[in-house]
Design the sequence.
């Protein structure tokens, strides 16, 4: 593998972000296979590279979009559809999962029947005024204990308010289609899913008893990827979810999920180059040509701890790996176990860097960030 990577470096330079579309397809298919009842809406925010959207569109994926621009990234593949097909696609395969949408976005999507989430009364009023064609999903605040990224401090209706918010939507003449939650990203504590499903089920059945015909449950994202060997297997989570769906909900409801990380994290690898080496307070600092303002932005926004592997062998010691900018905040890790004999011009690689990395990379300090290259881009039958 290392030789192949070095050939790519010769061809493209560094930093180099290598995205494998076969792996994206494999992850999508695994998700579908392990959760056969669930419609998979790829959360575009995890990595909005257009080619990923295209690969997943060709696979038949649905999409979770957070903004009008993300919506347009999907829309470009359906713009040639006739009106009826287009309407059907937007209704069936796109969800606006951001519980807060600006008025302009709502106005623009009103011509369709979009599926949108909400968690407060002001949003309901806005939807009523600017996009009353929408189907609504109420998002609950659920436990996100132990998840790498928590969600519930910013999103979700309090459980005690949920039934009232459903009632208020119907009173305004809007239609609530179902209930959603997000247990936090990279959720390795599966009790979060169990509790969220139990709360959802109670609210779902109470609403139905009141005559509100909800028919959809959206289990959000959070599906963990194997960053380290302690992460429990997805198969285990899928078995738990499948049995809870059966136990808690009628067979005829639709179940949706919004996986982001699970689809793309393991599909990318980054090669960086050592551009400086210094000993600071006795520790080796490797300065590389990518950092937290660029592809390693997940260290900040995603609370991610990246891994580094050297191409060269050598006696290992604890080193710092830091980014290229003139900012002392740009430290990727202070505890990478790397050979101490690496020099300027040597390369490192980082696996599982496909999610929440290039998506939030900036151009800070004039650095462009990594070049993205694609492996296995066309679907196999089109090769
Ligand atoms: C509403 C919503 N859905 C889905 C996702 C994707 O989550 P994950 O990458 O954990 O699967 C996110 C991530 O922030 C989100 O905010």
Sequence:
């Amino acid at each position: 593998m290392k030789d192949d990577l070095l050939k790519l470096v010769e061809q493209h330079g560094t930093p180099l972000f290598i995205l494998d579309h076969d792996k994206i397809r494999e992850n999508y298919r695994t998700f579908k296979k392990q959760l056969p009842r669930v419609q998979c809406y790829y959360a575009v925010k995890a990595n909005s590279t257009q080619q990923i959207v295209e690969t997943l569109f060709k696979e038949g994926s649905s999409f979770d979009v957070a903004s009008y621009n993300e919506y347009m990234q999907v829309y470009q593949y359906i713009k040639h559809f006739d009106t009826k097909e287009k309407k059907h696609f937007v209704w069936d395969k796109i969800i606006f999962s951001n519980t807060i949408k600006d008025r302009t976005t709502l106005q623009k999507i009103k011509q369709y029947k979009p599926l949108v989430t909400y968690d407060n009364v002001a949003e309901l009023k806005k939807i009523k005024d600017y996009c009353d064609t929408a189907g609504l999903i109420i998002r609950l605040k659920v436990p996100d204990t132990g998840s790498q990224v928590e969600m519930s401090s910013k999103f979700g209706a309090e459980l005690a308010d949920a039934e009232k918010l459903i009632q208020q939507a119907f009173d305004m003449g809007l239609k609530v289609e179902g209930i959603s939650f997000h247990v936090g990203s990279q959720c390795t504590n599966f009790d979060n899913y169990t509790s969220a499903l139990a709360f959802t089920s109670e609210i779902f059945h109470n609403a139905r008893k009141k005559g509100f015909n909800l028919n959809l449950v959206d289990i959000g994202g959070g599906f963990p990827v194997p960053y380290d060997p302690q992460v429990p297997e997805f198969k285990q989570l899928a078995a738990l979810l499948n049995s809870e769906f059966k136990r808690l909900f009628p067979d005829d409801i639709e179940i949706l999920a919004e996986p982001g990380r699970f689809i793309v994290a393991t599909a990318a690898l980054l090669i960086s180059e050592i551009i400086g080496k210094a000993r600071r307070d006795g520790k080796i600092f490797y300065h590389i040509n990518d950092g937290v303002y660029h592809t390693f932005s997940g260290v900040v926004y995603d609370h991610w701890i990246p891994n580094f592997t050297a191409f060269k062998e050598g006696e290992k010691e604890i080193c710092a790996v830091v980014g290229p900018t003139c900012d002392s905040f740009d430290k990727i890790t202070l505890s990478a176990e790397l050979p101490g004999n690496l020099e300027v011009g040597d390369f490192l690689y980082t696996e599982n860097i496909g999610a929440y990395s290039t998506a939030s990379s900036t151009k800070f300090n004039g650095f462009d960030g990594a070049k993205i290259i694609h492996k296995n881009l066309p679907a196999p039958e089109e090769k």
